[in-house]
Amino acid sequence: MSLLISQDTVVVIQGITGKQGTKICEEMLDYGASVAAGVTPGKGGQSLHGVPVYNTVAEALDKHCDVNTSLICVPRESTKDAACEAIRSGGIGLVNILTEGMAEKDTVVILECAREQNVRVVGPASVGVICPAHRVKIGAIGGSDPGVFYPGGIAIFSKSGGMCLSLATEIFNRLGFGVSIVVGIGGDRKSVV
Amino acid sequence: MEAKPFYSLPPKGGVDIELVSASDQAAVACHPVSISHGASEEDAAAVLTQAGLEPSDELRRIVLTLYDLFLERDAFLVEINPLLQTADGTWCAVDAKIVVDDEALYRQSDHLPRLFGQSRSLTYLQSLAFQNDQLDTRGTAGRMFHEITGGDIVVLASGGGTSSEALDSLHLLEGHPAVFTEYSGNPTGEKVKGLTKIALMTPQPIHAVWVIGGRANFTDIYETLVNGVMAGIRETQEFDKRIPVVIRRAGPRDSEAFEALRRARELEGYNIYLRGMATSVLESTRMVIYHARKHAKKQRRSE
């Protein structure tokens, strides 16, 4: 049972046309996650791995009303605006921020905005969230080989992305336990879940 | 926990106000500010009144200016201490300091070149590593760089969790790092190469290089190990190929990377030890310490 993500998780990737966004989109789709839309201002109308790209989150939500989660893969200079756009969209309940090296002031603005709108935030600098029982993941967690996460009963929360993967593989290889959910909180001082 | 900027005003002045505030909340006026809405005249009046001061126009202006500076300069702290009132009623900032968020320097350094130079006491290698990290925004390579006197192992660690585990293990088994630095978040090979060259510039005699990390989620292992670490070693002309390079790493393109490193060992004569996740961090620590001591012993004999 996972409160953060489930089989009902439908994702919009903000920054989908960037190097990181494109790669993560493919990895998420390969794993079985539902990526309904991407957003990159000025690149609306394109399509990546079969996922339509829009100029704004509002446009994406207009066409895909089942989207409930946003993954932010944009440069740090644009992360605050991208995250607040998702938070204020009215249709998104969870925002996962991959971006590293954000100014703390920008993070505080995002968190205050999320609190006001009652939206959950995981990150910044989060490697992502994975739920192997439902074969759902958001973000870069597990890279192109998320099959190393086996379903089970242990939840892992770690600020370190590498530790998320190492701990999950370690407890499975040595003890035979799988995981219910693994959450990369992010290593920034203000990273949250 | 709420993350908000706040005013802190101890009417009696003093130092270590955070500690005073923790033990005696009444001694320090604290007032949070909404970062979305900004500091208002009401906020300024509230903190001054809470501290027992008359919220005069001049004091409110000082309080609000501090907040503007805090926001404009991406500060963690803007402090005036002490703030004095002279006999004729004039308020004077006798001393002040500002601590700027390192992560915001990319948009603040133009405003702070003189202050930046004066306020940080970096070593030569640390400043090179810091500049290397600023080459581009992809990943980090050199943001954290420590030189430890008396050490003989150059540690290039990846990922916050594994880095901490590696340092603990090294301490536990009495290994001694000469340089401890970190790269993570899929930096370019160029950045990791630069960092490796800087780390190898340490004036201390090196007896091992330890590249330690877990299984990467998205860091390209070929790019960082082959175009990064190995390229940096190759470009360091004074690097003695007999120095052991102990690597423990896995992740995207690790097979290609390990193949290239095996070739560097077989064809170029580098003393490389390659391990994946089957080797624990502790086992890798034992390995690097063993090889470092062996190299040191051989070197002493040859002298």
Write a structural description.
The complex is a heterodimer of chains A (193) and B (303). Helix content of chain A is 32%, strand content 25%. Chain A is α/β, with parallel strands linked by helices. In chain B, helix 6 (124-133) runs antiparallel to helix 8 and helix 7 crosses helix 11. Chain B contains eleven helices and twelve strands. The model of chain B has no long low-confidence stretch (mean pLDDT 90). Chain B is 43% helix and 21% strand. By secondary structure, chain B is α/β, with parallel strands linked by helices. The interface between A and B is large, with 42 and 34 residues.
Count of helix runs of chain A: 5
Give the spatial strand order of the biggest sheet of chain B.
Answer: 7-9-8-10-11-12
Summarize model confidence as the mean pLDDT of chain A.
Answer: 93
- What is the radius of gyration of chain A? 15 Å
Given as residue ranges, the uncertain stretches of chain A (5+ residues, pLDDT < 50) are none
The major sheet of chain B is characterized as: 6 strands, mixed
One letter per element, helices H and strands E, the order of chain B comes to EHEHHEEEEHHHEEHEHEHEHEH
Strand order of the largest sheet of chain A: 3-4-2-1-5-6-7
For the CA atoms, what is the radius of gyration of chain B? 25 Å
Percentage of helical residues of chain B? Answer: 40-55%
Structural class of chain A: alpha/beta
Shape of chain B: elongated
| N-end to C-end Cα span of chain A | 17 Å
Of all protein chain pairs, which has the greatest interface, and how many residues does each chain bring to it? A-B, 42 and 34 residues
N-to-C CA distance of chain B: 60 Å
Number of strands of chain B: 12
Spans of chain B of at least 5 consecutive residues whose pLDDT stays below 50 are none
Strand content of chain A: 25-35%
Beta-sheet strand percentage of chain B? 15-25%
